[in-house]
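Mods, move this if it's the wrong board.
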Amino acid sequence: MITRIWASAPLLLTATLFAGSLPAAEDVTLLNDLTSVIRLLGMPCDKVVSAKRQADDDHIAICKDGNRYRVFVNAEGRVVAEKK
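Not the wrong board. Structure tokens:
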């Protein structure tokens, strides 16, 4: 049993090192939240597939249908989506 653990140690170490160097997958929760916000504001977006962070609470959301929106919190504290 101990031999199996030691035999698999290099494999686990290698997998851990390479997993850290892969590009990070976008946060699925953020994409779902942006999709919901855009839809609730009455704008067409079937699903947000990509988002680029501009600043805190400020993102450029790219929808599956090609629409692009800037989603941010304005000075009054309201969430706004502007078509780009």
